Amino acid sequence: MATIVDVAALAGVSTSTVSHVLNGTRPVREDTRERVEEAIRATGYRRDSVARAMRRSRTDSIGLVVSDVTQPAFAEMVRGVEREAAAAGHTLLLANSGEDPARELRALHALTERRVDGLIIAPVGRSHSKEMADIQQRGTPVVLMDRLGGIRADQVGVENAAPMREVVLHLVEHGHRRIALAGGDATVSTVAERRRGYLEALTEAGIEADDSLVLMGSGLAADVRRQVTGILGMADRPTAVVAVSTEAAIGVLEAAGALELRTPRDIAFATFDGFPNADLFRPRLTTVTQPAYEIGSTAMQLLLSRLEDDTKTSYRSVRLAPEITYRESCGCPGRGGAVS
What DSSP character marks residue 114? Predict the structure, then answer.
């Protein structure tokens, strides 16, 4: 197996020059770099990444734990993280916690045992905040993504309360007074913030909140379907429903379909997140779309900044603006318009 000494001998340079070319630790003249790169190709030299990691106290790997990788928004966030990580020469190790605190904890332990250089986490409800704080204390930087709070750390997410408030007020303008919220687990920060926006809108519109129309729970489609079926069967059923997530939206649409209720004639509808290719739905769905890819890439940028300077004592909290697109499902005629 070729060694760095073989590469240096063939290129006619010192081993330290080869090391500088490989690691980018010092500028090297272009013609010298070309000779070294040609020698690497000719000898078939491959770096011992384990030994290199031990010398640098780095593994060039990043751990990413998301709560549900099957959701379109999280899938886009993963793409954003991976793109930035790859550009910086890092390998991404992905774990899916499945909205389960125990699985999340196991993932955190597995990734830290593999000595990842840093962690990006979209925490589950009832997440193990103390463990995350301990991981930071032991020297592994942590960035929170999408679901914020819990520990002092760099974090990036989307504005939640204000967009939900705006969508609910939009439904009020369409004449709706009984508006249901298809929610989820209130211990998840995004769900709690979206519920707050919903309640703020009702207060602003002078509508007293009806607890029976605020559907909290697991947020899983099957549970939401059961809850929504119940309220749509009431004599004074709601005339509009807003969902806090794609998963909740599935439950709402399944319930309406099973009851043969048409949108928006029988029930107006809007959702946070929504579905890929939302324009293919009939009627087209009113959505609050978060910039998921940008959230992921920003999370990785925050982590890279922390890796470059781990002496910083302050933390950054970034909130990105989603895009609201009003379409026919909420009662808007024709082609909807996007509002940032």
Answer: T
In angstroms, rounded to a whole number, what is the distance separating the alpha carbons of residues 326 and 206? 23
In sequence order, the 6+-apart residues with CB closer than 8 A to the CB of 5 are: 15
Residues paired with residue 338 on neighbouring β-strands, in sequence order: 325
Q: Give the closest residue to 147 by CA, choosing from 202, 104, 107.
A: 104
3-class secondary-structure state, position 279? helix
Q: What percent of the chain has pLDDT over 70?
A: 94
Burial class (CB in 10 A: 0-12, 13-18, 19+), 32: middle
Segment 161-189 mean pLDDT: 95
Highest mean pLDDT among 59-63, 316-320, 334-338: 316-320
Closest by CA position to 293, among listed 146, 82, 80, 147: 80
Whole-angstrom Cα distance, residue 230 to residue 241?
Answer: 13
Specify whether the CB–CB gap between 147 and 123 falls below 8 A: yes
pLDDT number for residue 66? 94
Q: What is the spatial distance between Cα 151 and Cα 80, in angstroms, rounded to a whole number?
A: 23
For the chain, give the number of residues. 340
Which class would CATH give 60-158+291-320? Answer: alpha beta
Residue with more model confidence, 318 or 70? 318
pLDDT value of position 52: 47
Query: Could you confirm whether domain 4-47 is CATH 1.10.260.40?
Result: yes
pLDDT at res. 338: 57
pLDDT in tens, 242-270: 999 999 999 999 999 999 999 999 999 99
Class of domain 161-290+324-339: alpha beta
DSSP string for residues in 195-243: HHHHHHHHHHTT----GGGEE-S---HHHHHHHHHHHHTSTT--SEEEE
